[in-house]
Amino acid sequence: MPQQVPTSRKIIHMSAGMPASDGDGVKLMRFIGSDDINMVDPFLLLDLFGTDEPEDYIGGFPSHPHRGFETVTYLLAGRMRHKDNAGHEGVIEAGGVQWMSAARGIIHSEMPEQENGLLQGFQLWINLPATEKMKPPAYQEFSPDEIAVETRLDGTIIKIIAGQTDNGTQGPVKKITTGPLYLDVQLGKDANFSQHIPTSHSVVIYMIEGAALIGEEKSTLSQGHLAVLGEGNRIELVSEKTGADARFLVIAAKKIGEPVARGGPFVMNTRKEILQAFDDYRQGKF
Ligand code: FE2
């Protein structure tokens, strides 16, 4: 087999996010699905909610539908209760993940399981290809102790939610059609992090804490910013300066390349399918 020449992906777009409010008044920062970044195929939305002001989250996300894609909730702090119209219920803990393939439809609520303290986490929407948009809904849920962890000699600690590191550590989330990689990386001091990502995939990196330098150009990605990376088959990050901390998410998935029609909580291929989704919802077919 011919060897693929390693090409390091560079930053093609950077965003500090746009303040938004969703559900019942939950304040959040929207990084994908905003006027700044509409979508990064197959990613339709990326929200960060993070506040210790109860009035900014206490309303939660009361009963609402989804169709045509997956929602991935990864909590960093706090607890969130999830409940749906198919009798599925559970609590996502800090460090835990819920990967919900809404597919043909689900009606659910996502409510804070706390009245004070910090609630912080990410919600990502990943599109589904046309062939999977009308499949039955499915869940994969993992508590913090079920998330795979890889500790490297240079002090880097990687939590693997989905996909596989170059050292072969696999995340618990499996059998997702877009072959996602979802990593939470705590970069060691004076360390570098390199990871193969197929050319078929889009990649975004969100800097949770600190800063790091990306690609051969060593472009700085600082705290609170999302970087969309361009073509290539690897990502490379190094510590910004000696002794500095950095914690970031690496999220990658295979591009779908189909037409996207959006209507609120529904994402299909055509306008007609969106109208059908609203019709089905009104008629109680979810
Ligand atoms: Fe939802």
Bound molecules: fe (ii) ion
Any idea how many domains?
A: 1
Please outline the major beta sheet: 10 strands, antiparallel
The sequence of SSEs as H and E is EEEEEEEEEEEEEEEEEEEEEEEH
At CATH level 3, the topology is Jelly Rolls
Q: What characteristic shape results from the CA principal axes?
A: globular
CATH superfamily annotation: Jelly Rolls
Number of helices: 1
Characterize the structure shown.
By secondary structure, the chain is mainly β. The mean pLDDT is 95. Bound molecules: fe (ii) ion (FE2). Fe (ii) ion binds next to strand 5 and strand 10.
Write the layout of secondary structure elements.
Blueprint: E1 11-15, E2 18-22, E3 26-32, E4 43-51, E5 61-66, E6 69-77, E7 79-84, E8 89-93, E9 97-101, E10 106-112, E11 119-127, E12 138-142, E13 148-151, E14 157-162, E15 181-187, E16 192-196, E17 201-214, E18 219-222, E19 226-229, E20 234-239, E21 246-254, E22 261-263, E23 266-268, H1 271-282
Bound molecules: fe (ii) ion (FE2).
Fe (ii) ion binds at residues 61, 64, 66, 71, 108, 110.
Please describe the structure with a list of short key phrases separated by commas or semicolons:
286 residues; mainly beta; Jelly Rolls; binds fe (ii) ion
